[in-house]
Task: inverse folding
């Protein structure tokens, strides 16, 4: 871990800026809907996902939680097309409310930032626009995306000079700069310290609300899932064992009793304890 | 003031040891501790250098050697780099060539000198061939290793973000391999001088190595030592050049950033 609290003392907690986000420039609800039908995936004969059905409506925020090895990352990577299904079908398509012109695009944010160490922060964000527009346009859009995650002043720096939390924000800007319809988050905050993580969660929620993409978050942090998602899927043995709606209005306050109750219920399920009546 | 002073001190420190050796050497010869037929005094070497420079002999030989070195480096390094890239990027190419390359690599290239003289005589081709062969392996091996050690997570990221193969190579693979390629470059530059001097000492009619051998014939120890000192300076020059290149190409890497 690179950013300990003491090192980050001048800019405490790596917190994103508090000012309200600029009003959404893109139409909300340009998200993509995801349909997974009878999906099977095995590695070397070991089944990881066994007959999974799933529908994610456009613009929703869904979290997948589960023990490690339950297949949640594999599911996400298969939806993104990074793994080919052994059997079954994954379909990612524009939702009903979407204008047909919106480019259907999917982006993923990995657990590690995966920034190019030899490219400046700005050029790293511009990687998200590979093949789109002119060089000048890409730079302008990348600069705007950096401003959105509160790192406008770091544009010219090398990634090596940033803290872990800042790097992950650059990765978020890179994922979002093209205005994707689906953003997959593969435990993107797992390597951050607790306070930086909360700041990042708020940032992700804010940008999701402003841009209206479909978000799919894989995490093993149940409180994170509860804080961010409208729907939580608990995976177990390659299937969805529990499908819960989170009807708590936003902005959610951390430690709200409704959230705590839900978190407890999911944890009980994961730990196999029968739920108290 | 203090800053420039400390910077000046910083710059002089590496040269303290060579300077001390020179002074001790001069003193030892002047005091008669070392026979000047075994080891000429530094001042005699300077005089020999001045003389060789005045007649133009030094510059001609230096020029000839440098040209040979660079030509051999360009040929051998070029082939090594291209083959390293090809084998790093293509399994087929690697399976086809790597075994052969590894076998040839284990033959000390200087052992080919008799064969090379039989093939090319003592002409330019002989030197070019030997230098190219010596330079080829470090460049090849380090380019291959550099490409192999590029972080697969970054390559996957590039693919996910829609980079074409060419873009992936230019923006991810090549920059990632660069630190390793530079290691190969520095090794190769050392081998380049070594090979050239040996080749020139054994079979040549011009060049620095030839100059040293001629001087030996006439017992001109000061010229022999002059040639050796020039090798040292040339080596240092090549190293400084590579370092500067590294610092500008790898400035993103904290390990290479200038202080």
Result:
């Amino acid at each position: 871990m690179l950013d300990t609290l003491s090192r980050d003392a001048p800019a405490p907690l790596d917190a994103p800026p508090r000012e309200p986000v600029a009003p959404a420039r893109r139409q909300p609800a340009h998200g993509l809907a995801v349909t997974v039908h009878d999906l099977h995936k095995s590695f070397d004969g070991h089944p990881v996902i066994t007959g999974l059905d799933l529908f994610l409506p456009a613009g929703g925020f869904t979290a997948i939680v589960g023990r490690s090895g339950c297949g949640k990352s594999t599911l996400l990577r298969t939806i993104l097309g990074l793994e080919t299904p052994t059997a079954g079908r994954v379909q990612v398509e524009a939702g009903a409310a979407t204008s047909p012109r919106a480019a259907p695009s999917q982006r993923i944010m990995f657990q590690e930032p995966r920034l190019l160490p030899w490219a400046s922060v700005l050029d790293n964000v511009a990687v998200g626009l590979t093949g789109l527009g002119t060089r000048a346009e890409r730079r302008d859009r990348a600069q705007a995306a950096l401003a959105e995650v509160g790192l406008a002043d770091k544009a010219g720096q090398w990634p090596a000079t940033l803290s872990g939390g800042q790097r992950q924000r650059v990765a978020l800007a890179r994922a979002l700069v093209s205005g994707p319809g689906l953003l997959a988050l593969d435990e993107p905050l797992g390597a951050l310290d607790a306070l930086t993580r909360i700041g990042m969660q708020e940032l992700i929620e804010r940008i999701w609300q402003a841009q209206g993409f479909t978000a799919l978050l894989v995490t093993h942090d149940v409180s994170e899932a509860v804080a961010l998602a409208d729907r939580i899927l608990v995976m177990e043995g390659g299937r969805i064992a529990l499908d819960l709606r989170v009807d708590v209005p936003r902005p959610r306050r951390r430690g709200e009793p409704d959230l705590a109750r839900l978190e407890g219920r999911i944890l009980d399920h994961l730990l196999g304890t029968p739920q108290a009546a | 003031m203090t800053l420039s002073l400390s910077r000046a001190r910083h710059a002089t420190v590496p040269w303290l040891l060579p300077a001390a050796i020179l002074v001790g050497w001069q003193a030892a010869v002047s005091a008669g501790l070392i026979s000047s037929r075994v080891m000429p005094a530094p001042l005699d070497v300077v005089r020999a250098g001045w003389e060789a420079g005045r007649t133009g002999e030094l510059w001609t030989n230096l020029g000839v050697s440098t040209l040979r070195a660079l030509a051999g480096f360009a040929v051998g390094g070029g082939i090594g780099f291209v083959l390293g890239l090809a084998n790093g990027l293509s399994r087929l190419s690697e399976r086809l060539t790597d075994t052969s390359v590894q076998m040839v690599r284990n033959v000390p290239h200087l052992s080919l000198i008799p064969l090379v003289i039989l093939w090319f005589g003592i002409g330019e081709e002989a030197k070019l061939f030997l230098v190219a062969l010596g330079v080829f392996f470090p460049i090849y091996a380090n380019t291959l290793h550099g490409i192999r050690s590029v972080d697969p997570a970054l390559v996957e990221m590039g693919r996910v973000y829609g980079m074409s193969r060419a873009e992936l190579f230019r923006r991810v693979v090549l920059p990632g391999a660069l630190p390793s390629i530079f290691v190969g470059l520095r090794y190769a530059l050392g081998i380049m001088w070594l090979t050239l001097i040996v080749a020139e000492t054994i079979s040549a009619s011009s060049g620095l190595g030839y100059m040293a051998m001629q001087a030996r014939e006439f017992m001109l120890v000061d010229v022999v030592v002059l040639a050796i000192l020039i090798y040292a300076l040339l080596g240092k020059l090549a190293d400084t050049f590579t370092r500067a290149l590294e610092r500008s190409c790898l400035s993103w890497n904290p390990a290479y950033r200038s202080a």
Chain A has seven helices and nine strands. The radius of gyration of chain A is 19 Å.
